[in-house]
Specification:
It is built from five helices and 38 strands. The protein is mainly beta. It has four domains: 9-58, no CATH class; 77-208, Jelly Rolls (Sandwich), CATH 2.60.120; 257-412, Immunoglobulin-like (Sandwich), CATH 2.60.40; 421-550, Immunoglobulin-like, CATH 2.60.40.
């Protein structure tokens, strides 16, 4: 058999006899205790098989075990099949390994300690449904399990979802002697209630208290009366009565940060991949201090002592040097976040100092083409008015007015509101001599200047046709652009790349522009294969949403006809 580390052990030899056979197992309890409980003993090896097979449970939680083939990552471990909140607390998803297969999960968390002379150690853990925890090979805590855990053990009781996502503090100070200077290992045997359970979670951290031989910190405040907090603060407290008590700690959020702090812009896929940023704004009427507020999930950042005035902005960037090389100096940068925003979209969470969620949403690269690698940012349409829980929806966002985004300022006055000018009707195979045509419609009661805007049928070449400067669409009016005279006419100064509309179906793109470059307004319309002389256009369906469908007759410059009847 194998003992991973030299030291003092109590041994227990167990002999089984049943059904005409027998088995002998050796268990060991490390340490020099006066008494031992059943839970201290762990299987060492199976002597009846020549000592060659070492019980897996005896070695996986020691630092000598080779875990190079294991799944590696950071953050919690878990899965969720029922749409609950657990994905907010784990980064390693083990659904494929556990769901309907196994109730156990082995987790190894290596960490470094500069000085091992600690007298107080707290394990803080979220768990569904049970666990057995080991520190450097010695068991230090367990919940909802009795006996000797096996590779496929399950929890003996459940832990309700609401309790499971709350960090439970377990005082393991009696095991502080297991800590050592340098490399250490916290190992956790996570236990689900059953293999068919719909969710699972383990998320843990280890907190060591003051050095046991130290003196009182000169920065410590002796409590004699209530203490006024002028900003969000993380407080650690303990009593001294001959010896130090365990540490008690809490975070206090000061000021209306959760009420007034909002994410207002995300540059998730910039032209220069190192110039990502997230912009936040104070939508309230008083200055707020962001101390201990944090961004998580997609990226990680905890704010320091940063004050934001009413209507002011603050930026968190991927790379400060790269950002300033492109945008210059003088921007309100709070710091540099860890991680990188996913170009394909991902989940972002913003919390205040007390851990209250302000935003939790997912953005998508499919919302607007110009924000996905073309240099435009995703910008919240109205951060002060929008429901902070509504940012999962495309309608809450628009592209920035200009390439490069608007870090630290509001660009809403530089571009018309999305949806006010639409691609209203297209004719891909005209009869009667007009050729292909595209109709735009001003849906508002004010005239709109679309001079300098662009039309195209190619997502990779959006500036194929530039509408003539000074082109105005009257309130509620229409603009019809013809292939022969405009977007397919090489003699038109705005026709940079001539194009026509395909009978087989395609997508037409409309983008605002200024000075020959794209700005942030965009619309698109897609149509399928066309019969000769049949146009496609916008039609409001019974649900009140618009569809782009074949129409019963072409109506250039006029309201659209009803849809073409189905055969």
């Amino acid at each position: 058999f194998n003992i991973a580390e030299a030291g003092q052990y109590d041994l227990r030899l167990v002999f089984y006899e049943q059904g005409g056979g027998s088995e002998l197992e050796l268990f060991a309890a490390p340490g020099s205790r006066n008494t031992f409980s059943e839970t201290h003993f762990r299987l060492v090896g199976d002597i009846t098989r020549g000592g060659l097979q070492v019980g897996e449970a005896s070695v996986w939680f020691t630092d000598s075990f080779d875990d190079s083939s294991w799944t590696a990552g950071t953050g919690g471990v878990g899965f969720e099949t029922a749409g609950g909140s657990y994905p907010n607390y784990f980064d390693i998803d083990v659904q494929s390994e556990m769901y309907n297969k196994n109730g156990s999960c082995y987790i190894r968390i290596p960490f470094e300690v500069g000085d091992a002379e600690y007298s107080n150690v707290i394990l803080r853990i979220r768990y569904d449904d049970g666990f057995v925890a080991y520190l450097n090979g010695g068991e230090v805590a367990r919940r909802n399990f009795t006996g000797v855990p096996a590779w496929n053990s399950t929890a003996s009781a459940g832990n309700a979802d609401q309790a499971a996502v709350t960090l439970a503090s377990v005082d393991i100070s009696t095991h502080a002697g297991l800590l050592r200077q340098g490399a250490n290992l916290l190992a956790i045997h996570g236990l689900n209630l059953s293999t068919g359970s719909s969710d699972f979670l383990i998320s843990a951290e280890l907190i060591a208290g003051e050095i046991s031989q130290g003196t009182i910190s000169p920065d410590a405040i002796e409590y004699t009366e209530p203490i006024l907090l002028t900003g969000s603060t993380h407080v650690k407290a303990r009593t001294l009565a001959g010896q130090w008590s365990a540490v008690n700690e809490a975070t206090f959020a000061v000021g209306p940060v959760a009420e007034n702090l909002r994410i207002s812009e995300i540059m998730y896929h910039p032209a220069d991949p190192n110039t990502e940023y997230i912009e936040l704004t104070n939508v309230g009427a008083e200055t707020i201090n962001l101390r201990l507020a944090k961004l998580s999930r997609g990226v990680d950042f905890t704010f320091g002592d940063v004050a934001v005035a009413p209507g002011g902005y603050v930026l968190v960037v991927e790379d400060v040097d790269a950002f300033e090389a492109v945008y210059g100096l003088g921007f309100p940068i709070a710091g540099q976040y860890a991680g990188k925003l996913d170009n394909a979209g991902e989940r972002i969470e913003l919390q205040d100092a007390a851990g209250r969620t302000i935003h939790k949403f997912s953005y998508s690269d499919g919302w607007y083409d110009v924000t996905d690698g073309m240099g435009f940012s995703l910008t919240v349409k109205d951060p002060a008015a929008i429901d902070p829980n509504a940012l999962d929806a495309k309608d809450a966002w628009r592209p920035s007015a200009h390439e490069g985004g608007s870090p630290g300022f509001d660009d809403s006055g530089d571009v018309v509101e999305l949806g006010v000018v639409v691609i209203n009707e297209v004719m891909p195979d005209a009869a009667g001599g007009l050729g292909d045509w595209i109709e735009l419609h001003n849906t508002t009661d004010e005239a709109i200047n679309v001079g300098g805007w662009f039309l195209s049928d190619d997502a990779d070449e959006l500036t194929r046709y530039e509408i003539a400067e000074g082109t105005i669409i009257a309130p509620g009016g229409y603009l019809v652009l013809l292939e022969d005279e405009h977007f397919g006419n090489e003699n038109d100064p705005g026709c940079h790349v001539p194009f026509g509309l395909s009978r087989n179906g395609e997508t037409v793109y409309l983008h605002s522009g200024s000075g020959g470059v794209l700005t942030g307004y965009s619309e698109q319309a897609s149509f399928g294969p066309a019969e000769n002389g049949v146009s496609f256009g916008r039609f409001v369906d019974n649900a009140g949403s618009y569809a782009f469908v074949a129409l019963s007759q072409p109506t250039p410059g006029q309201p659209n006809a009803p849809p073409l009847p189905e055969n």
